[in-house]
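Shipment paperwork, digital attachment
Item: protein structure file
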Amino acid sequence: ENCNGKGCVNWLETDLQGIVRDRFYLTDTLQSITGTNRGSYLKLENQHFITATISQPDGTADMLISEIDPTEQTINWIRVYGSNLENIPTKLIADDNHNIFAYYSKLFSTSPFISTTNLLKINISGDTIWETVIGIEDDYNNAFNHLHLPSGDHLTFYAACEPGVEFQSFLTGYGLYSTKVDSLGNELWSQELRRGHYTRWNGTDPVLLDDGLIALNWIHDTFPLPADTVRFQDMLLWIDQDGEIVREFFFPKDRERNIRS
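Attachment content:
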């Protein structure tokens, strides 16, 4: 959001009739914020948390997490996490003990593209409990989303390249991966779900179903495509909690869709 030439966070509360509260938050820390679309909002009982990406004077971009007070229109605390070139968060998730998980991409290099995905666990004051690195080592990894399980384990979903394959090679080395970590951040398993397919950024939003399976969406790239069809075909995957695909569904090729949840 642009507030008189400075960056700020705009928080809206709505009901079925429209906007109930409209709040702006501007501090020195938020002056160079690059976009709240690169983050999310979390309500934890009476506490409100936001995350975003802010640009630093040296051209890098860090992940910001903040607790805000919509009633008083004040900021209770702000913490900045990450380092290197760029840190792009996905959504915030809380567990039953009021700990908060932030899953984000950490970019180290653009020539060649090298990045990891990181899962960060903090308390409600913003203090780091642990952080773990997820993804294919020394290659390009892009965080999509994550899911906290009733067992206390955590599932992460990300796109990654095979080692040595440029990330633009969507049809060969680029694929959808999942990694499961325990409540202490230790990796339990990593699984390749699909390879040689393409997804739009942040298009994968996993949902825990009543039967214990996880449903998520993915975009299948049909290139080279016949003249009478679309190139990108949405699909749904159902996986178990060991990362095995149970079933899948392909949407018709009559149009391009962009499923977000």
